[in-house]
Design goal:
Elements (H helix, E strand, L loop, with lengths): L7 H10 L2 H6 L5 E3 L2 E4 L11 E4 L4 E4 L5 E2 L1 H8 L4 H11 L11 H27 L4 H9 L4 H6 L3 E3 L5 H6 L3 H9 L3 E4 L2 E4 L4 E7 L5 E8 L7 E3 L15 H7 L6 E4 L2 H9 L5 E3 L7 H8 L4 E7 L2 H14 L8 E7 L5 H8 L1 H9 L2 E2 H10 L7 H15 L6 H14 L3 H7 L24 H11 L11 H5 L6 H13 L5 H5 L8 H9 L9 H30 L4 H23 L9
Parallel strand pairs: 12-13, 12-14, 14-15
Antiparallel strand pairs: 1-2, 2-3, 3-4, 4-5, 6-9, 7-8, 9-10, 10-11, 15-16
Helix pairs in contact: 3-4, 11-14, 14-15, 17-18, 20-22, 20-24, 20-25, 25-26
Length: about 600
């Protein structure tokens, strides 16, 4: 069920019914620390607790690594669930049933049946590997590849015997069973006859991050083609989203510092057997945006490990292009190319884990790989070569999100073609908008005076109950047209309809939107305003916003008067605005400038 199909009121209700302190304390031991609770952060290593949980705000925040969120976010990050899975988990705990549209209810049940059936199929294949007379060849092959029984059990490796109807013989030949086996890709139909898709193959179950079997890969033991056969696309298996070995990785690693991406099942298995357990493989397809987004849920550090031949370089270049729009600051992607003729499986078996680890430490950064490839056939000492490099690099750089990393790439290109980086930035037409004026580096506290807009937003996000005190000013606030004001207007509108929302529930409205990290900074800003002065400070910031709006409107009218003249109503409005500004300046002078409107 897509996120948008879960009604917003249901999400609000789930968060409201969940005690975030109880939820987190069941997984990470919390200690009372004043009004809040504290612990060593579960998302990075530390000795002094910097992870705090606020029962009032129903929100957690780590001042060390910046991890933050509500109950849904915690389950996504700690239990490694998807958004829908996290909402469903909290709903079940609260005695609520995740709403399913009437036209989806049958499909929802069918998907559960698919997972259950494929788990049984996986168990059947494992039994065949252990007991079927035919499986001796498969066992011999696995031993020859260095796979021991413990590793085979970890990855639930099995065997599909020869024969056309093994699955229907084992599970039953009813029309219902046939339909389910066909829907999950285990049977294939031809001329209205259904038969086993996988025959005489070593079977590798493909599991989702929760451990549910979603499909299979099968390696032939004879001359059948293809050598590796994967499940077809089904309702629960999408090769553009699935990764082999991710479930096993998560079982072995609570903290995932980096993830290595390889190309084959046996690469993952061989590395895991040699103690390198942070490895996944794509499933017969190029790395996709969905693959990367899934991996970034678990680690910001990725290493692509490819063969050093032309095909490996091409696969790496496609992976680089796919990753560019996802390169937020903090993400680190590197590339390792093994000697020609080697793959991770052969290298780790012949030279050992340490040799491969040394190679991984020398992996090239994304920037090094990108510019090396771009410059490969160019003479950048020649003006024409510089122009070609700029032409080739420009569309790639435009895909990278605005931030420090993008600026470093621009500066590197500028150095290569010997042009001022500011001029190059302008030539690339990089228009990075600042949202709500929050121009701070990722992970840092706000380190300069708050604008009235940011202060008002910060107070409302941290103390949503304050919205009731300015309800009567809503029409005036709605009339403000300053940049970023729409977010303040949205917050007030949401709180007018849902006054019970906490900080955690309120921030949920902007999940996955570009503004979300900026709002989180405001929600976690440690402001100096005492509780007794919160309401007055909010009112003062709104007054300053209204004065800014007057200044903005006066500047607009003055500019228009110079360029094309004003109509009568506009002239009168301009005169009123000038008069108000003079009165305000007079008040400031009389009080020495020490009034809230001037602060």
């Amino acid at each position: 069920m897509p996120k948008q199909h879960i009604p917003r009121p249901f999400i609000d209700d789930v968060i409201t019914r969940t005690d975030i302190v109880e939820l987190i304390d069941a997984r990470v031991h919390l200690k009372k620390a004043g009004r809040n609770y504290a612990a060593c952060c579960p998302f990075h290593e530390e000795k002094t607790p910097s992870f705090t949980v606020s029962p009032q705000k129903q929100f957690y925040h780590c001042f060390g690594c910046g991890a933050h969120g509500n109950a849904i976010s915690f389950l996504i990050e700690y239990d490694r669930l998807s958004f829908i899975e996290a909402v469903e988990t909290l709903a079940n705990a609260a005695g609520l049933t995740l709403p399913v549209n009437a036209d989806q209810s049958g499909q929802h049940k069918n998907l559960s049946d698919h997972y259950e059936l494929l788990t049984k199929v996986s168990t059947y294949y494992q039994q065949q590997l252990r007991h079927h007379a035919e499986a001796k060849q498969a066992v011999a092959y696995l031993k020859a590849r260095g796979v021991d029984g413990r590793t085979a059990k970890l990855f639930a490796i099995g065997y599909a015997p020869a024969g056309w109807h093994n699955l229907t013989t084992h599970f039953g030949n009813s029309r219902t069973i046939q339909q389910q086996l066909t829907a999950t890709g285990m049977l294939t139909e031809k001329n209205q006859n259904a038969y086993d898709r996988f025959r005489q193959r070593i079977m590798f179950p493909i599991r989702d991050p929760r451990g549910r079997v979603i499909g299979f890969g099968g390696r032939t033991l004879n001359d059948d083609t293809p050598k590796y056969l994967n499940s077809p696309e089904t309702a629960i298996y999408h090769k553009s989203k699935a990764l082999y070995g991710l479930y096993e990785l998560l079982q072995k690693n609570r903290q995932v510092n980096e993830i290595i991406i390889v190309e084959g099942y046996l690469d993952v298995i061989a590395l895991a057997q040699h103690g390198i357990t942070n490895v996944v493989a794509t499933l017969g397809t190029a790395t996709t945006k969905e693959h990367l987004q899934l991996l970034f849920r678990y680690s910001q550090q990725l290493i692509f490990c490819f063969d050093g031949d032309a095909a490996g370089k091409q696969a790496a270049w496609r992976a680089l292009q796919t990753s560019l729009p996802l390169l937020q600051d903090g993400v680190n992607i590197r590339f390792l190319f093994l000697p020609e003729g080697e793959d991770p499986d052969s290298m780790v078996r012949q030279q050992g884990a340490q040799a491969l680890q040394q190679q991984l430490q020398q992996a090239s950064s994304l920037a090094d790989f990108m510019f090396k490839e771009l410059c490969a056939d160019l003479d950048i000492a020649d003006p024409a070569g510089k122009a070609k490099l700029k032409h080739a690099a420009s569309p790639l750089l435009k895909q990278v999100p605005a931030g420090v990393f993008k600026q470093l790439l621009i500066e590197r290109l500028a150095k290569l073609i010997r042009i001022d980086s500011n001029k190059l930035d302008h030539m690339l037409d990089d228009k990075a908008a600042l949202s709500v004026g929050v121009a701070t580096a990722r992970g840092k506290q706000l380190d300069k005076p708050m604008t009235p807009l940011r202060l008002a937003l910060s107070l409302l996000l941290q103390y949503p109950q304050l919205a009731a005190s300015i309800h009567d000013q809503q029409p005036q606030i709605n009339a403000i047209s300053l940049p970023g004001i729409e977010y303040l207007q949205q917050v007030l509108q949401i709180l007018a309809q849902n006054p019970q929302l906490t900080t955690g529930a309120l921030l949920e409205y902007w999940r996955d939107q570009p503004i979300h990290p900026h709002l989180v900074k405001l929600a976690t800003w440690q402001h100096p305003v005492p509780e007794t002065g919160l309401e007055a400070e909010l009112h003062g910031s709104l007054k300053r916003l209204l004065h800014q709006q007057q200044d903005y409107e006066m500047e607009r009218l003055l500019t228009k008067a110079t360029l094309q003249g004003l109509v009568a109503d506009e002239k009168k409005l301009l005169q009123d605005l000038i008069k108000r500004q003079k009165q305000l300046q007079l008040s400031k002078n009389n009080l020495g400038g020490d009034i809230s409107e001037a602060s």
